[in-house]
Structure formats: C-alpha cells, structure tokens
Q: What sequence folds into this?
C-alpha cells in the first residue's frame, strides 16, 4: 500500500504535518465528577478540589486553573494548603500523603507532585495506628500534625516528610494527663479534629471521636486543658480570638467552650441543638466568624431533624436575627468562608459550598444573600446533556444579543465580582468568539462561551414552554412558606429530573449569521427559532410530517407526540420559536440541518426525512426510507435495540438519579431503586451468560434500521449537469445509501409566494452498506463548500464553481470521493477494512499552520469507535495523523464528541465535564497562569516557587532536566536533613509520569 | 400412426426401438443394433423421419441414468445405440434454439459423464455461441481457495472466501481466547481470536477449510494481534465481499505439504470444493485440474488485489430511474453493459449458479464472447445489490 516516494518529498510533507497538527488535551470544562475534598488558601486566593478518582484541581481568578492527577487510583479525602505557601498536601484513601507545589516555569505556573509519604507505625502495630484521620498544617509552614485512627498524633516535617518522632503526641500521654474520672472509662477513639490556636501557635487542640478535646502545648509536650464533651465529636472550631472553642456533635448539638481561663478543665458556656426537640442528625462542620461591628456569623452544616428533614443537604447560616437553612441539591462535601480585608481577616464576604454536583457561592454582604454566578466549575449536567453543537467565530452582533438575552435571565444573581481571585491569567485573549450549545434532557439548550479556558454560561433556552407537559417546571421550587422551621431556602441549579423525557433535545443547528436556530427532540419535534430582543407573545403553529408515506404494516409502539399549547405563549427575549414540525411517527430526530439562505430546514428520523420551508411554513418534501423488511424499525422506537452497554449505562444513571430523587420524592422512589437494581442485575446476568462471540456476516439490505437517516446536507452544486449548479439536498442512511434531491427555489422577490420544490435526482447505494455518517461537497479547488451566508458576509471565499465538484461520502467504514455531476468513484480511504475501527464522529476543519500565518489546509477530523482521533486530508482523503484520545470502553465519551471548525473538540469525561482537546498546532486553548508566593512569606519557607528568572529560562522543555532541577533545588535547600526525605523525593521526582501540569 | 411401426420389444431381435421427439412431434422407428451405421446417415434419417430436411439439428439422447447426452459423431452414436435398453429416446432441437445447458442437467451424481459430454461436444465448436458451456473456468464460481501456500509457514493456512452474490451466509463466529507462542522468554500465553462456531450450511462450513477453534492470525493481510474482538469483527465484515483469513488450524494434520506435488494437487482440489451441487465439478482428473485451476493451488494475493473485487459496485440511480454500477474512472473505457437492477435475488439455492448467470446473459441479447466473462462476474457480484 505504501507507494514509493522520494525521501525529500516525504520529509517535506512531514514538516508541514508538524506545523499543522498537534494533539493536546488542554483543559477540562465543567464540574469535576465525584468531588471528595475542598480547601481554600486565603493567602493564595486559590480553591482546591480533590476527587474520588484521584484528581486535584486548583482554581483562582477566572482562567487560572491547574490540574493534577495522583498515580494511585484512590480518592482524595483531604487537601490542605501549607499556610502562606504555594504547596499543598493531599491525603488519599490509601493513607498516603502527597506534596504538591505550584512551580513557575517560563513564566507559567505548573502543578507538580514533589513528594509522597506514608506513615509507618512501630513494627507489629495494627494498621489503624497509622491510619490518618485528621491533618493539621501548622502555621509555621513546616510541620504537619497527623491524627490517626489509633488516637495518636504524629508530627512530620514538611516539605520533606521527615517524621519527628520525639514530638509525637501518643494516646498514652494524653490519657495520662486526663482527670481520673474520664480517662479511666473508655478509649478516646480516633482523632477527629486537630486545630491550632489562632493566637498561640504553640497550642494545638486534639479532638477525639468520643468527644474529649485536649489542648496540647507543643513546647512543654503536655496537656494544657481538657474539654470534656460527652457526645460523639464531629468538628471543632477555635474562635479567632483564641478564647472559645466550638464543638459540633453527632446528635445535632453544638457547644461553646471557654478556653481562655487558667483552669485545666474548660467551662461549657453554651450547648444548643439548633433544630432540636426531636432527634437531629449530626452537625458535621461548624464555623464562627466575627464581624467588625455586630454579632458573628455562625455556619453549621447538617443538624436537621432526623425524621422530617434528615434527607436535606443543608448549611445553616445564622447572623444576628437572620437564620437561613440553605437547602442544596446534593450532598455537601465541604464549605469555607471567604473574608474581606488585605489579610483576609475581615468580615465574611462569601460562603463557598461544594456539594456533590455543583459549587455554590453565596454573597454574604448583599441583602438576601444572593448566589454569585460561578465563572468555572459550572454544572453542565444540571439536566443531563443529550447533545452538543459547536459554532466557531460568532459575529459580534449575535454574540452581544445572546449575551444581553442571557443577562436578563441572570438578574437573581449577585452583582458582586467573583470572590476568588488568586493567580494571574496569562492566556492571550481568545482569537474569536466560539459558542458551545448543549442540549439537555429537560428540553433546554444552554449557550456557553467556549472561546477561552472558562466555559461560561451565556444564555439558556427552554423549549418546554411550547408544549403541554405534565408538570409545569419550577412551580414549587424556591418558595419557602412563611414561618417554616427550619427556614429553608433552595440554592443551586442541579436538577436531574425531566418532567417529560420527550422534551429531550437531540439535535441543534444554529446559523450564526442570521440568528436562526433549529432544535429537534426525542418526540420528533423540530422547532425553528429566531432571535428576538423583545419579549413576544405568539402561538406556535405545528405542522405534522408523515414520514411513513402510507407504508403498511407499521405499528409505532413508542411515545406519543408532544401536545402543543394552543393559546399564545409569552416568550422572553432571546430565541423564540416561530415554527414547529412534528414527525409522525414521533421518533427521535437523528439528523437536522438548517439553510438560512434558502430558509429551509431538513430533518430525519429512523423512518425517513423531510424538508420544511420555514418562510412559507409548509413541508416541501417527505421521503420514507423505511425498509419494509426491517421489523425492528417497523415496530417502534429505537430504544428497543439499544446496545447492552448503553442500557447498562442508563440503568446506572437511573439508579443514581433515583437515589438523588430519594430526597425529593419520598413516594415510590425506593420501589424505583429496587426496580432499577433488578433490571441492572438481569442485564448483568444476561451479559455473563452469553459467550462473547461475534457473528461474521456481510451486511444485507434486511438489517435493522437501514432506513435511519444519519446525515443531511445542503449544497449548491452540479447535481444533474456540469453547466448549471443548483441547490440540492443530500441524505445518508444507516444502510449505506445516499439520496440526492434537486431543489428549485423561487427567485428572492417571489420567495414568499412561489412554492419550493424538490425532485429526486440521484441515489447511491454503497456496496459495503456501512452507515453514511457524513456528506460533503468539495468545490473546484477541493475545499468544502462554505456555509450558507458565509460568503455573503465576506467571511469565506466563495466556492469555486468553475472546476469540477466532488462528492465526499463518509461512511462508518470508508471515505469515498465521487465525481459530480456524473457520479463515479474517484478515490477512497478504507478505515475498517484496514484497522477494524469505525467512524463515530466526523467534522470538517481548517488547520492553520503554526509556522506561517497564511498557510492552511482543510481536513476531516474523525473520531473512531476505538477512541482514536484521525485527521484525513481533503480532497485527497489521505490519513494524516492519528492520536489515541478516549478509552474505547468510554462509549458515552466517544458519542459526546463534538468538533470545532478549527481543529479543536470537546467530549464528556463524566456526566458533568467536557475535556477540550486540540488537533491543530495553531489553535490551542489552554490555561496559562501564574501564581506567586504570598508576599508575607515566612522566612522559613524555601525559595522554591518563585518565578524562574532569566537564569533558568534556558531550561526550556525537556521534562528530564526539569526533574533534575527540582531535585537539585530540593537537595540544595535541604542540605543537612536526613536522607529519608531525599529518598522520598528522589523517587517521586524521577518518576516523570507524575509530573502533571496544565496544558501538557 | 406410429402404432403400425411398433415391434414388440425383444432384445434378442437385435433391433433398437427409437422414439424421437422434435418439438411436440414424436416419431418411432427401429434400428438394427448390430449395424447402426454412421452418424451422418443417422442424422439424415432423423431429418427424413421428421420431414425437416433443411433444419440443422442438435441430437441428444437420454441415457440409462436419465442424463441428456449429445449425439454428434460416430462414437457417441454407437455408444447411444449400445446402451439403449430397450428404447433409445432422442431429443432433437434446432441448433439455433438449442439449449446447451440442458445437457448434463441431471448429472449431479455423475461427474464423469459430464466430462465426457463436454469433450464430446467440443468438435462442434464453429458456432456463434460458445459451445463449451460447462467446461470453461469462468462458468465455475470459486467459493474458496487456499492461497499463498508457498510463502506461509506450513502450520498456517490462508483461506479466501468468495462471497459474491450468493445468498449463502459467510456463516461463522469468532471469539476471544488465548494461544501459546514461543518467545525468547519461553512459552507465553497471548490473547488471540478464534473461530468459535460454524453455521451449518454456511459458506465457511461448506468449504471445509475453516474449523472451530482455528486461530485467526490475519484478516486480508492485516495482523489481528493486539486488536479487540470487535475490531476484528468489523474488519471481517468490512472485507466480507472478499474475505481472506489466515488461520492456524486447530487440526494440524491436514496441512499442505509443500514439497510433495501430489499432496499439493489434492489440497488444491479440496480447496476447490464447490458449493451446492454444481454438476461441473468433475475436474478432479489431474490433467484438467492443471489446465483449469492453475491459479488456485499456488495462488498468491497481492495487496492491490484486496482492492480489486469489492470496488466500485456502488450503485447509482439517476433521475429517470436507471440503475448503473458506478464505473471506476480509471477503467472508464471498459463499459459494463446496462443491467436491469430491479431483479430479485437470484435464488441460487435451487438452481445452479452458472446456469442462472447464463440464462440471464442470454436474455440480455447478444453479447460478445469477450464480454461474457466480465459480464458474468459482475452479475454475480451484483446479486447482492438490492433494489432500492
């Protein structure tokens, strides 16, 4: 297959390829899946989140993002910043501790793991002795106190992780110091909490699980005071003045203890069960912060009455007479409070809460404590994502109109700027405005600003308003009844329930020049929308397109059509529907394209496709593609033959959802979980019983769903003769056939009156019968035809109508170029026959050279079912590059992939996160940010993370030299220390794979 | 009137009772078994008896096994007379209208006869129609072959399955498994792909060249090592029109011995084992086998050959509803005659494949001899092309 080529040519082409293509996974958008730990560094103004999969993510000002991944596939249970430093310590599920640092390199900070440590107990001791349960990073910046399950507190010097055995606080020492009446009774249990005295760094409070708290003097190595709480301890807070300690307990109570006095036993000043009388759940965390004038703020997480509200996820904020129980959408992971002032010791300004599915920030200084919209960590999955669509290079005018429509939706958010401001965002401004549109299960389409590192929500469109649904959304949300106790207030937007699954958005197409948008859904509904800056009340007329065309023997077993509201509906400013087509049978829409210049929309389902004229609001063409022998398609909805993988995934999702819904709808949910579990088990059993074998059989015309329309395409090309180009419509089916129609459009001045007509022109049946997933017409220069209106807006070179046009048909197995108007095969590239992979996603992209500004090539970006990305050249259909990208088992990730027109792409790495990647060497969007060491660095801190000056600028790229440099630096700065430290670090620093930075 | 001629059948009389049929007419007469005379005399007698002196005839007779065999020279005339027992049934046809394919139609079980028939028919080769219907290789449809015997290790077998236009399914399943390889580190277990099941009556089973538990090493020249079961499945399906599988047979006793010529020939013929009941099967006699199937015994495929078969039978229907196979631009000069597309699948189970194609080409009218092979091939391949 390899043709002999001159060596020079080959290397020249290789160089061009290097200048055009380069693969990078650049940034993760959205909310981390299964977060498990949260911490905030006031001095760095950085927020860190650890996840169950071992990832650690740091966020500062918008655009400042860092990401690291532990080698161990273990959950991050705790994260702690070293005070006043750029280092942080993570504790994993496997009891290992890891030291990370932000190291500046070429003016950009990178997050690197620089050491790891596991506590070793005395020989023969049970593992619980060294199982870390509490971590305190001492304000001196070089001591780590590790409380363990065995009740001991180990002291470790950082950053080298050197155990200071002589300073350990053993359980025996503590027990001996206790008064007889307490110590004699029972064990103190594990160390639940470690707190440093805010005014006296010599004192550390050790809170034990049984409730006993001990204030320990580090210098005298002895107990100073005991706090004899009797309830199981949940958390401890030492007030800022050092005079009081607050403890929260598992029975829903909290206590205030006076610790300033001289006596060895502290007085209980107050004990309260805030939601008392009936048994309450534990208060898992308590924080009290003073204000300059007036009473302090008190924050309590949990503590709800067990029977009636035990399933709520609440944080209570109590300030003076105001008492609000913030009711979150999912389990609370952790929270912290940001404070004003240069040293971050002033009034509380914002409460930051990490719950399982979103990050919520509450403005504590504005009346009513509104929510501040987050610029990152947005919950993409507030309703499950069902499809996505990317539009590059949005004209400024449309951009501004969408933004202003969105601004009207966000009036309930706080006006305050984002309170987390750490680091400097050094990324250059985005070269263009890009929109990512996500369709959701609840019938909404969300518009995201995808130009830069932050995926910022711009506007949300709901299509549900057009239809009559069982429940009106949000009618009982956000409305706490007067005088209710506890005083609940719902916060957050995560809402995984769909009132009607038929509303789910399946396909989106936006014309960026005209502002026309078409959205198609699960029940065969196709809405055409127009951007309107004013609110308008209108009735949406529905047209039914009968795709069966009298085909007999059909029984639709699926859902019914959505009912359309007959009375006029008030639509807010933004995209407003003005036309609706409903397919009959109401199967899920599988292909959708809009041509704004011709004012036509074409749509396809598993039964056929149609062409709709949205100016005259009539159906121009309906074509049934159903194969009469295709029983499955004949009988009903697609879901009947979904793959086992898919149904498994859905079962999991259902279970997860129903688990969440447990908290919302008490009724029936337990039964639902059971049902879902049973179904899952049945499916698993089925999978295990069937031997894994695959049938080898040629595809035949009788296969199922050969009629499913996979792709639709409009082109102005030479369809019937080589002298006249005409508008045409192309459709590709699952059975490997391509159908072409010639369109006759009336002249512009008669467009509103004269009918549009479509005439069948060609049908191509591919011999290999693989599903056709893409159709592109290439002009005389071999470039893909421009988008509609693109030329009119002077944004693209007009297509070459002189030379011969070519038709590129992309099937799951092959790329095949045909001549036009007479269709004859010209060339092809086989994929499946050669390496067994199949095309899953394909896009047309333009790749600019990274070397010269004016050179670029068109190409196809392809994602295969093996998770590999390919670039295929146009018009020559030659494979250019290939990169592994997604695990092939990650079916939903592969299915979610969407390409941009400039060689980037997005895919879901979890239900809530998009990974952004780039195939282009020129067009790369990645975070570049710098975090500097806080100004008041304690003298003891090592000069590790200062930005590298010119002296180190020559260490440009190779990872190995960096590692050596890190090593040398550490070694130099720690000369004289014990070798254990070095061993720890040699290991970690040499393991190159651990070095994780953003954008690399 | 024939009754008058009727002589009681008696072998001892030495007379042969003849019943001759031309069109709807019968003539009965008898001949002396001991003195049958020459063929040309007999021929004139037939013309006379039927009163068709100027009509060119094709003479056939039914032998004891019910086969229709030709009489066109002295030898087979004498043979026909000698085997007539007691009645010699003759079938006369006009030569212009002759249905050559009728000969040997029932000879399913008796390949040797057809060889004979083919040889005997050959002298008449001055006709417009190609005379030898049954003996030309192009009338065979290969269903499988062993290829690359000379370059593969003896333990491996490369099998080519010709799917063509048959309805017969490829008919096998593959599974994951593990095989033992010899590596520098010793024996090592490596994952492999194996044939797990054969569909009874499928193409794979009928060839006898693939068996359950054979390890699949390559698909159309591409190694499957490191590929997942699904990938290999997709590769095989993508190549299903011309599938070349290299296997390591589970049963290593039937391997081709490359040095021994006789063994090779035997394998060649077994590699040629045909699908259901072609009567033109009988080339097991060594001489003809060499002449007709030289390429199959040591047949090597080249990468470009992988492309050759499947290519460009994509079908285009233009506005007026005409269907055209898409010609390859490079070979545009080679025009394939227009073939009506709206034809149901050839039912190759009940009738003979070669016959069917022959009949169809006949119905298409006059075709040059040179075109026929090509035409036949394309027909076979397009059997699967359905009809939109």
A:
């Amino acid at each position: 297959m390899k043709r002999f080529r001159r060596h020079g040519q080959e290397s020249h082409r290789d160089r061009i390829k290097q200048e055009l293509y380069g693969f990078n996974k650049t940034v993760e958008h959205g909310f981390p899946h299964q977060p498990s730990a949260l911490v905030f560094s006031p001095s760095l103004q950085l927020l860190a989140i650890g996840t169950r999969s071992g990832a650690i993510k740091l966020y500062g000002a918008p655009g400042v993002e860092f990401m690291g991944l532990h080698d161990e596939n273990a959950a991050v249970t705790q994260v702690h910043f070293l005070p006043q430093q750029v280092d942080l310590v993570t504790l994993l599920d496997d009891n290992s501790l890891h030291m990370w640092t932000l190291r500046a390199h070429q003016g950009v900070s990178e997050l690197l793991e620089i050491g790891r440590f596991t506590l070793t107990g005395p020989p023969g001791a049970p593992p619980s002795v060294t199982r870390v349960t509490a971590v305190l990073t001492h304000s001196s910046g070089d001591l780590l106190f590790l409380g363990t399950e065995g009740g001991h507190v180990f002291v470790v010097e950082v950053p080298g992780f050197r155990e200071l055995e002589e300073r350990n606080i053993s359980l025996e020492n503590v027990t001996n110091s206790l008064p007889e009446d307490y110590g004699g009774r029972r064990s103190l249990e594990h160390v639940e909490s470690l707190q440093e005295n805010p005014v006296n760094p010599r004192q550390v409070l050790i809170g034990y699980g049984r409730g006993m708290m001990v204030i320990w003097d580090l210098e005298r190595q002895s107990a100073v005071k005991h706090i004899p709480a009797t309830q199981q301890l949940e958390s401890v807070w030492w007030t800022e003045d050092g005079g009081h300690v607050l403890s929260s307990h598992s029975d829903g109570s909290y206590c205030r203890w006076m610790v300033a006095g001289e006596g060895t036993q502290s007085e209980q000043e107050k004990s309260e069960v805030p939601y008392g009388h009936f048994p309450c759940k534990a208060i898992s965390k308590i924080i009290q912060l003073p204000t300059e004038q007036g009473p302090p703020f008190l924050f309590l997480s949990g503590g709800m009455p067990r029977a009636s509200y035990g399933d709520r996820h609440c944080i209570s904020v109590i300030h003076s007479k105001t008492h609000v129980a913030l009711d979150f959408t999912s389990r609370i992971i952790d929270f912290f409070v940001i404070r004003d002032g240069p040293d971050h010791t002033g009034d509380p300004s914002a409460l930051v809460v990490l719950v399982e599915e979103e990050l919520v920030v509450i403005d504590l200084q504005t009346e009513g404590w509104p929510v501040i919209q987050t610029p990152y960590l947005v919950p993409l999955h507030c309703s499950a994502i069902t499809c996505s669509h990317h539009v590059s290079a949005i004209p400024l005018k449309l951009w501004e109109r969408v933004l202003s429509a969105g601004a009207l939706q966000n009036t309930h958010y706080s006006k305050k700027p984002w309170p987390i401001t750490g680091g400097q965002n050094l990324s250059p401004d985005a070269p263009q405005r890009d929109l990512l549109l996500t369709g959701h299960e609840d019938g909404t389409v969300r518009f995201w600003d995808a130009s830069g590192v932050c995926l910022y929500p711009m506007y949300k469109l709901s299509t549900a308003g057009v239809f009559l649904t069982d429940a009106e959304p949000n009618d009982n949300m956000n409305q706490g009844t007067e005088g209710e106790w506890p005083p609940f207030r719902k916060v957050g937007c995560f809402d995984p329930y769909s009132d009607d699954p038929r509303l789910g958005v399946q396909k989106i197409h936006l014309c960026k020049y005209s502002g026309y948008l078409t959205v198609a859904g699960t029940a065969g509904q196709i809405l055409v929308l127009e951007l309107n800056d004013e609110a308008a009340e209108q009735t949406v007329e529905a047209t039914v397109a009968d795709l069966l065309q009298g085909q007999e023997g059909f029984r639709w077993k699926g859902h019914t059509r959505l009912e359309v509201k007959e009375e006029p509906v008030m639509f807010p400013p933004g995209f407003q529907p003005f036309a609706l087509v409903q397919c009959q049978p109401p199967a899920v829409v599988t292909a959708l394209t809009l041509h704004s210049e011709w004012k036509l929309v074409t749509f396809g389902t598993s039964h056929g496709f149609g062409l709709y004229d949205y100016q005259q609001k009539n159906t121009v063409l309906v074509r049934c593609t159903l194969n009469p022998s295709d029983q499955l398609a004949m009988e009903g909805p697609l879901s009947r033959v979904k793959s086992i993988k898919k149904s498994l995934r859905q079962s999991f999702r259902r279970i997860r959802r129903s688990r969440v819904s447990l908290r919302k709808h008490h009724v029936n949910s337990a039964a639902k979980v059971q049902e879902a579990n049973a179904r899952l088990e049945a499916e698993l059993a089925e999978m295990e019983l069937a031997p894994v074998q695959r049938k080898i059989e040629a595809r035949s015309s009788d296969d199922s769903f050969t009629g499913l329309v996979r792709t639709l395409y409009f082109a102005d090309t030479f369809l019937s003769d080589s002298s006249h180009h005409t508008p045409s419509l192309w459709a590709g089916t699952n059975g490997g056939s391509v159908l072409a129609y010639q369109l006759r459009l009336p002249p512009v001045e008669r467009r509103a009156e004269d009918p549009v007509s479509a005439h069948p022109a060609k049908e191509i049946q591919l011999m290999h019968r693989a599903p056709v997933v893409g159709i592109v017409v290439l002009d005389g220069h071999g470039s893909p035809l421009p988008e509609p209106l693109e030329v009119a807006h002077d944004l693209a070179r007009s297509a070459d109508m002189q030379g011969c046009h070519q038709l590129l048909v992309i099937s799951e197995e092959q790329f095949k170029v045909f001549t036009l108007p007479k269709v004859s095969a010209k060339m092809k590239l086989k994929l499946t026959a050669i390496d067994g992979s199949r095309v899953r996603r394909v896009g047309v992209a333009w790749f600019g050279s990274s070397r010269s500004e004016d050179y670029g090539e068109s190409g196809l970006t392809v994602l295969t079912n093996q998770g590999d990305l390919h670039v295929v050249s146009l018009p020559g259909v030659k494979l250019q590059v290939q990169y592994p990208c997604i695990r092939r088992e990650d079916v939903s990730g592969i299915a979610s992939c969407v390409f941009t027109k400039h060689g980037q792409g997005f895919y879901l790495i979890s239900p809530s996160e998009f990974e952004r990647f780039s195939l282009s060497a020129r067009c790369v969007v990645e975070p570049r940010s710098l975090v500097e060491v806080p100004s008041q660095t304690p003298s003891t801190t090592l000069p590790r993370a200062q930005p590298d000056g010119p002296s180190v600028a020559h260490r440009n790229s190779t990872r190995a030299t960096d590692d050596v440099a890190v090593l040398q630096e550490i070694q130099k700065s720690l000369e004289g220390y014990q070798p254990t430290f070095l061993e720890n670090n040699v290991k970690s620093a040499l393991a190159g794979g651990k070095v994780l930075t953003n954008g690399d | 009137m024939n009754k008058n001629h009727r002589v009681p059948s008696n072998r001892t009389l030495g007379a042969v009772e003849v019943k001759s049929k031309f069109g709807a007419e019968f003539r009965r007469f008898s001949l002396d078994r001991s003195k049958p005379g020459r063929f040309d005399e007999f021929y004139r007698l037939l013309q006379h008896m039927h009163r068709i002196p100027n009509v060119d005839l094709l003479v056939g007779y039914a032998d004891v096994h019910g086969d229709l065999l030709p009489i066109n020279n002295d030898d087979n005339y004498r043979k026909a007379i000698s085997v007539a027992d007691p009645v010699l049934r003759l079938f006369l046809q006009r030569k212009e209208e002759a249905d050559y394919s009728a000969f040997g139609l029932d000879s399913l079980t008796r390949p040797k006869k057809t060889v004979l028939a083919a040889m005997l028919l050959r002298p008449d080769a001055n006709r417009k129609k190609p005379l030898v219907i049954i003996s030309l290789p192009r009338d065979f449809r290969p269903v499988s072959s062993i290829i690359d015997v000379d370059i593969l290790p003896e333990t491996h077998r490369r099998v080519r399955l010709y799917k063509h236009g048959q309805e017969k399914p490829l008919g096998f399943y593959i599974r994951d498994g593990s095989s033992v390889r010899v590596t520098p580190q010793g024996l090592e277990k490596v994952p492999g792909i194996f044939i797990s099941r054969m569909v009874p009556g499928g193409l794979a089973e009928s060839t006898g060249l693939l068996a359950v538990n054979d390890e699949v090493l390559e698909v159309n020249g591409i190694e499957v090592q490191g590929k997942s079961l699904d990938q290999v499945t997709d590769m095989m399906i993508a190549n299903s029109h011309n599938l070349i599988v290299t296997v390591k047979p589970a049963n290593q006793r039937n391997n081709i011995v490359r040095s021994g010529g006789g063994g090779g020939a035997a394998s060649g013929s077994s590699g040629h084992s045909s699908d259901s009941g072609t009567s033109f099967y009988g080339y097991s006699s060594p001489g003809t086998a060499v002449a007709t199937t030289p390429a199959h015994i040591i047949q090597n495929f080249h990468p470009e050959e992988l492309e050759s078969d499947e290519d460009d039978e994509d079908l285009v229907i233009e506005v007026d509803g005409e269907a055209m196979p898409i010609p390859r631009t490079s070979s545009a000069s080679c025009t394939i005659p227009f073939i009506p597309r709206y034809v149901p699948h050839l039912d190759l189970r009940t009738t003979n494949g070669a016959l069917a194609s022959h009949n169809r080409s006949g119905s298409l009218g006059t075709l040059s001899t040179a075109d026929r092979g090509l035409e036949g091939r394309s027909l076979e391949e397009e059997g699967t092309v359905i009809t939109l």
